[in-house]
Every structure is written in structure tokens, then in C-alpha cells.
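Hi,

Apologies if this is the wrong queue. I'm a grad student, and the batch job for N-acetylglucosamine-6-phosphate deacetylase from Gopherus evgoodei produced an output file that my downstream script rejects. I'm not sure whether the problem is my script or the file. Here is the sequence I used:
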Amino acid sequence: MMPSNKSVSDAPIFQFTNCRILRSHQLQREDLWVREGKILNPEKLFFDEKGSADIQLDCKDSIIAPGFIDVQINGGFGVDFSLAVDDVQSGISLVSQKILSHGVTSFCPTLVTSPPSVYHKVLPQISIRNGGPHGAGILGAHLEGPFISKEKKGAHPEHYLSTFESGAFQDLLATYRHLDCVRIVTLAPEMKRSSEVIQELTRQGICVSLGHSVANLSQAEEAVRHGATFITHLFNAMLPFHHRDPGIVGLLTSDQIPARRRVFYGMISDGIHTNPAALRIAHRAHPKGLVLVTDAIAGMGLAPGKHTLGQQVIEVDGLNTYIAGCTVETALEAASLHPAQLLGIEHRKGTLNYDNDADFLLLDDSLRVRATYIAGERVWSQDTFTI
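Support response: The file is valid. Your script probably expects a header line. Output copied below for reference.
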């Protein structure tokens, strides 16, 4: 224990030492200072408050990275977010607790294409909340469908797909009924009336993602001009790249993106959904837009076998993850900074900048999670790792 000046706050000051911090796109050998759930500027502490740490913690040469933000996760550990059950909250709570060990400190529970009755029952039960010892924070729901293409429906059930009719945004409201907790909507931009729907969702602060679509590049560019900022699992469930019309994939290098607007794209980096070479092509074309997502289903964390995805049954045969040759910094930012920027919360989460929420991970050199912290509090750690 060291003496500390408490003129500003009585809360204890924690100093995490013997670590490499991801800051300004680089791993830097610095200490991390935390007070009252926020990352502290040590210079202000020393010079303005004449203060010092109350508690020093030896991180044993860990990498410290911002907590991961998963903007597309359909469930896990036997829980399927797209099932109309009476106690949605307990399922979300179970997943939010279990994903702490994977380094996820906040997430968007994702619903796949479902009948309106499911949205009407499930969405009122999803509430945005901060993370903590109880589990990762909930940033809002990601609604993937039902306004998507039949040709590119993937695992989404065709008989629940919808189109925008004369009501456009009113059709969407009738389907979902509740938008208070909604953060992202994935839709196919080639659908008629989609432009006005994109504009209205964007106006309400909801992120629009393009996916499960046969859109050509000009349709995708028009959607971006109207406010779309994300691509749902790039390459999957969209037209393959073609040099005459690259489709949605072409947004990565389009010169028609409005000034000061960035298009982000989700990637399932497991070596199966996307070949590592395709992942490298996307990353080299547009590195600042890469957002790693799990797209995990109820079977995540369970033994191989049959598991649900909304109204469908999916066969799980082992689990795989894969990172295709890029720097450690790039991989970590794709799971933290970029999703935070996509959701417009980078002033609070996704970096280790001063005054941001102290949501962070201690990782070993192989990027295995040693410990997870939310608001400066340890919420999970390996049995063998103590600091």
C-alpha cells in the first residue's frame, strides 16, 4: 500500500503493472490506472491530485486489451435468443455470464428471422444494461431478418421472410413492435422501399446492416448513402465477388461512400465460414472496417449434436476458430475498437483511453484470456491465474 491523496475521490486507485497495453493502435509497455470503474490519466493524478496508487497488481507480463464487443451472437450454452420463452432474461443472463471467459464484456443478443409473435414476446424482455460480475453488458438487440432475400436466406426459415409493402417503416414496426432495445437491423437493401426504412432506422439511432442479400454494388451504395454502416458476415449470404459488379463486397473499396462515413463489415473468422485468404483480402482492402463476430448459436459451448437456431435445427460438429495472418493489435481492435465505433460508443468502450469504462482483458501471448474486468472489477479469471 502506498499513500494516496484523496482530494478528488475516496475511491481506491488500482495500478496494473508489468503489462503491455493496447493504446493508440500499438502494444505499449505502460501501466494501467483505474478508479471508480474508469481508466485514469496518471499524469493528472500525479500533478493535479499529487496522488498515487492504493493497490498495485502485477499482471505477469500479460497483454491488456479492451474488452471484446460481440455484435452478432444468436445464443450459446443451450440458450437460443430467437425462441419465444417466458423468461428470456434468464437465458440472456446465462450467456452473458458464460461469455466472460471468452473475453466478451458487452454484446448484442441476435435474433434470426422469426414470426412476428416471437419478436412481440422476446423484445420487451430484452433490456439494455451494464455489465458486471453478473455478466457481460447488453448493448441492445441485433435483428437479423426477416426483411432479407429468399435467395440468400442461409439458415433463416423461408416462410417467415417479409418484404416492405406500402407501409415500409410501418411494416417493420408491425413485425417487431418494440424498437426500444434494438441496436442493429440486418436487411437486404435491394428490397423495394428499403431506402426509406434505412433512413428512418438511422434517424432513430439504430444501426442498419446489409446482409442476406443479392444486392448489386449500386444498390449497396445507395443504402450507405441513406445511412447503412455495416455488412453482416461479409461474403456469407451475399452474391460472390464478380469483377463487373462486386455486389455488397464492393463497398470495401467503393469511392461512393459519403465523406467521413466508414462502412464496417462483420467477419466470422473460424476458417470455415470464410476462407482465410478471403479474410486477408477483405482486411487488406479495408482494415479499419473489420469487426470480428462469433455468430454463435445455442450449440456454442455444448457437445457436438443437434441444436436450435430460431425455428431451425442445426447440426454442430466440433467448434473452430481461426485468425488469418494479421498483427495482434489488428485482431484485438477488430474485436473491440471497431465494433465500438460501429455502434458509436467509442467514447465509452472499445479502447483503453482515459475516462473510458474500465472494461478490459488480461491475455497471454497466444491471446488466451487470463482474466476479464468490467468497470475495473475482475469478473472472471483462469483458475491458475491470480494477481
